[in-house]
Amino acid sequence: MAKNIQAIRGMHDILPEQSPRWQQLEQTIKSILAGYGYSEIRMPILEKTDLFCRSIGEVTDIVEKEMYTFEDRNGDSLTLRPEGTASCVRACLENGLLHNQTQKLWYSGPMFRHERPQKGRYRQFHQFGVETFGLAGPDIDAELIFMTARLWQELGLDGIRLEINSLGSSEARAAYREQLVEYLSAHGDLLDEDSQRRLHTNPLRILDSKNPDMQAMIEKAPRLLEHLDEESRQHFERLKALLDAAGIEYTINTRLVRGLDYYCKTVFEWVTDRLGAQGTVCAGGRFDGLVEQLGGRATPASGFAMGIERLVSLLEESGAAIPAQRPHAYLVMSGEEAELRGMQLAEQCRNQVPGLQLVVNCGAGSIKSQFKRADKSGAAWALILGEDELAANMIAVKDLRGTSEQQVFAQAGLADWLQAIVEKTA
Ligand code: ATP
Ligand code: MG
After folding, report:
1. How many angstroms separate the CA atoms of 282 and 128, rounded?
2. CA–CA separation, 51 and 90 (whole Å)
3. For a substitution probing ligand 1, which of 255, 275, 278 has the most ligand atoms within 8 Å of its CB?
4. Mind listing the pLDDT tens digit for each residue in 345-360?
5. Model confidence, pTM
6. 183 CA distance to ligand 2 centroid (A)?
């Protein structure tokens, strides 16, 4: 026999037993976003490669080594999106959504990065992203953080801590960059290979290095936060005041620089110790320069993205119950005639009872085996259409989870009976 084809390394199926957890998470996020007035935008998964090179930056990990890039049949270079922000800005520009207006948007879906697969790090993973446009103040940065804090609370997740930093204006960063390169060059012998390479391309990223041999040296490096321009400093102060007023705890991490080039002023991450090395569940910040960089008018922007797989792991780890699927009823039928009438009756009930969750036994089988399936389905009630019931235009109902007696009544009354069940469980 030929060997079965397997999924691509680092890309996973989400199986029926796991999907209720995903749905619960997605629904909670969506309802919070709706509660703050954000609207959904959906973008294609494929984009022109140039979009990511121009937005994320040529010397970032993503563009240098993580993108799934290929030529399509026309010879155009396309890339499976590694993140959503670039596509979102492209879509907004292309559709005139940034002209004299503000936007509060969210998107969700798969992202693709060719990284080394490990727990919490996959080649296809899923993000929920939020982007705002046209709002320059720290108020919106704070709102983004409030929304995520509310999400952890609603999901019952604790132990996720907030780290914030400010990267300042691009001018302040350029001036700081020179100082940093000077400092790092003076300690060139301590720099590992990655950092040597980054010294002149993306020196701020060196601050983010996890290499233990470099920590002491990095600790003493000049700090960007101490070289902020006045406007960025005030922005950061106000953000802190807004967080304080809302009772949101944070730590200032002066080494938080984020992997992407387009950030300025506020950056933040929500981090947990419970997921091992892959502890960042949500990351974001301000990217005032990106819209202009992609050909639009200068437009302030701020956003974040969260990793759904990591949040699902956290939910699993915290022992939160998986919402169970509980159909209202399962229809058991004995024989071909009963099947004919039963399937007809089920459709009539669906027409009449909004919200009805009714599983019809498919694949025949003995009454005993049908009852086993009914039990496994999680249904509260079994509806039974045996030969006797069929002949008398009746239907029997049996409480699968309780102890009440089996009842029999006219088929004509089934829809009303189910309606009452649906209302009772709503
Ligand atoms: P990391 O430092 O972990 O590589 P990143 O800075 O590359 O993260 P972002 O681009 O900011 O990550 O993506 C936002 C969030 O998406 C991350 O905080 C994380 O939760 C999730 N994420 C990023 N890459 C992956 C991946 N390969 N697999 C699973 N989740 C991921
Ligand atoms: Mg990464």
Report:
1. 9
2. 8
3. 278
4. 999 999 999 999 999 9
5. 0.92
6. 26
